[in-house]
Amino acid sequence: MDATDPAYGCRRCGQRLSRRGGELSCPDCGETIPIADGIPRFPVPDGVGESSHETFFDRLAPIYETPIWFRPLYRFLGGAAAPRDDRSMIASMLDLETGAETTITDDPDAPTVLDVACGTGRVARHVAADAGFVLGVDISAGMLERARRYAARDGSSNIAFARMSADRLWLEADAFDRVACCWALHVLPDVAAALAEAHRVLRPGGRFVGTTIVAEYVLDAAPVRAVARRAVGAEPFDVDDLRNHLRKAGFSSLEFDRRGAALFFRARAE
């Protein structure tokens, strides 16, 4: 697999989609997916594409990686115990240790990575140097446009992006060695479906790594949780509930590392 041929699969008949000009098409049932500005635009579940949730993240995209959004919010949630750079810890949990952002590995056995709800691609870009290929998916067109632009700026040629819903991935089963879902589970409308999809596209024994928020530390206070819910629709997890969700989706070897209200987790696909 490379950046020009991700393992896109038709959700209607299961066949691999092929690129033809400005679209992807299914050789079996004729399903076509438009490609705009290099980003395939897969259909998302009814109501998601026009939701205020998506519009909010489109507006957030220009400032997401600036000093006025992610970093101060991360420090507020994680507190003093949180790693200075969450991406380094995520890379380590993915067994992509260096997270260097300069050269791309030439190892033919380097793992393939799917970044679900990738946002502006900050994690995808960080792990790309140690991965064979990275695909980032998100429903927000604004986030994906920034992700594509930033990857081109950084010279990350082994990354592709697609508009796709976390709970309905247009990808073949067993397509990736690693799946990441960072800072997103708490805003997804169907967590169980998203985890089931992450498990489906992982090869047996593959690692699933992510970060989310839990009702601890600053989020132990009901007023703070209420603000998070109103602002971005965030629903903090109880760790036991997340553990149960992961097990029901088919994951094992669960590991959790809580830093303040920030929870890092890792699991293995059975």
UniProtKB/TrEMBL annotation:
InterPro entries: Methyltransf_25, SAM-dependent_MTases_sf. Pfam families: Methyltransf_25. One of its GO terms (biological process) is methylation. Keywords: Methyltransferase, Transferase. The keyword Methyltransferase applies. Residues 113-206 form the Methyltransferase domain. CDD domains: AdoMet_MTases (cd02440). One of its GO terms (molecular function) is methyltransferase activity. The keyword Transferase applies. This is Methyltransferase domain-containing protein. It comes from Haloterrigena alkaliphila.
